[in-house]
Amino acid sequence: MRKLLVLLLLVTISLSTAMIAAAKKDPLAAWQPKFDPSTAEYTYILSNVSHPVIEGVAVGYRIRDAVWEATNGRIYVDYRPLSQLGGEKDVISKLKLGAVQGMLSSSVAAANVSDRLGIVNLPYVIDTFDKLDTFRNTPDLWEPFANGAQRQGLIVADITGYGPYGWATNTPVNSIADAKAVNFRIAEAPVNTDSYKAWGLKFTVMPWPDVPQALQTGVITGLDHTAIVCNITKKFTIAKNFTELNYAQGLFVHLVNKRWLNKLPKDLQEVFLNVIKEESEKTRALTRQQHEEQIAKAKEAGVTFTKLSDADIAEIKTQAEPVLTKWGQKIGPDYLAKVRTTLGN
């Protein structure tokens, strides 16, 4: 009997240790819901490729909890960050079919959904936090964007972000001449490709999961990304320089399958969209704060931050004008002109 009790105790300790270890290995353990979602009438599967330590990604969990409370448990937002449902191109296909009902798509990938959504990634159009707020809060600018993917059966519910774009590089880039010696990794997005061609810079289109090894082996020597992402994902451990180019805001565009939304009762549709709006607005403010915090942390860790001269910025803006003209034809020249005029570009 004594041996049996000892054996049972050992088994219990082993199981407990295994459960604790599993919890530590689960990167999303801290974000599990504090309610039972099995009673929900409607489930909204929401995808994202990034980690919720980024405020613009964590919004999915805040939306989940706020929607549950506001609908009295009728809608469960089943949030799946960290590429649980696949890469962005795969998820976009699932979203159009309705297998996934929502997606926090990166702004670079959103241009693959609809040309009009590419406006947020054009160089020096919506390039600051203030301009982003104006764009979102001006109906004449926001509504054409929000309805820009209707033909694909999608609507844009709102936007959050991950900071202004710049260059993380292995060697300092203080001028356009310095930049020409760098092989930049850029996202799989047509707007980015056109911009880098216009700037005459060397670039490699590469999926994000391939970046760490490529950076370590020298296949690429720079990244086109934001300070928030580069610091949180440890890219600054190799690329210890950041040029604050600030040519666009990195965004997560909240796409919703229109068929799924229309199946909800009208009252739930309104509550659902209002919660997304409220939480997204709060998150944009948090992203501003996170941007400053991550830059401060990176500087403390030895990362050097620099800016191009006014003359160099003027030059790359001039070089980007053909890109704006080309995309203006796709987006709608009058719409692009209204956005640029309203935002002071």
What does this structure look like?
By secondary structure, this protein is α/β, with parallel strands linked by helices. The protein has one domain: Bacterial extracellular solute-binding protein, family 7 (D-Maltodextrin-Binding Protein, domain 2), CATH 3.40.190. The chain is 50% helix and 18% strand. Strands 1, 2, 3, 4, 5, 6, 7, 8, 9 and 10 form a 10-stranded mixed sheet that branches. It is globular and about 60 Å long.
Briefly say what this structure is.
By secondary structure, the protein is an alpha/beta fold. Helix content is 50%, strand content 18%. The chain has one domain: Bacterial extracellular solute-binding protein, family 7 (D-Maltodextrin-Binding Protein, domain 2), CATH 3.40.190.
Number of strands: 10
The level-1 CATH class: Alpha Beta
As for the number of domains, it is: 1
Rg? 22 Å
* Spans where pLDDT lies below 50 across 5 or more residues: 15-23
Residues in helix, %: 40-55%
For this structure, what is the CATH homologous superfamily?
Bacterial extracellular solute-binding protein, family 7
Overall geometry: globular
Continuous helix count: 14
Distance linking N and C termini: 82 Å
Averaged pLDDT = 93
Structural class category: alpha/beta
CATH architecture: 3-Layer(aba) Sandwich
Instruction: Give me the CATH fold name.
Output: D-Maltodextrin-Binding Protein, domain 2
What is the percentage of strand-forming residues? 15-25%
The quaternary state of the protein chains shown equals single chain
Main sheet properties: 10 strands, mixed
Order of helices and strands: HEHEHEHHHEHEHEHEHEEHHEHH
